[in-house]
Specification:
By secondary structure, the protein is an all-alpha fold. The protein has one domain. The protein contains one helix and no strands. The longest helix has 23 residues. The termini are far apart.
């Protein structure tokens, strides 16, 4: 159950980091 809850948050965190890098360019 914990892994199922952590997975979406990890995905959100990764996408957020990608957006930050994308906007920096």
């Amino acid at each position: 159950m914990k892994a199922v809850l952590v997975s979406p948050f990890k995905l959100l965190y990764l996408t957020e980091e990608y957006f930050v890098v994308f906007f920096r360019i």
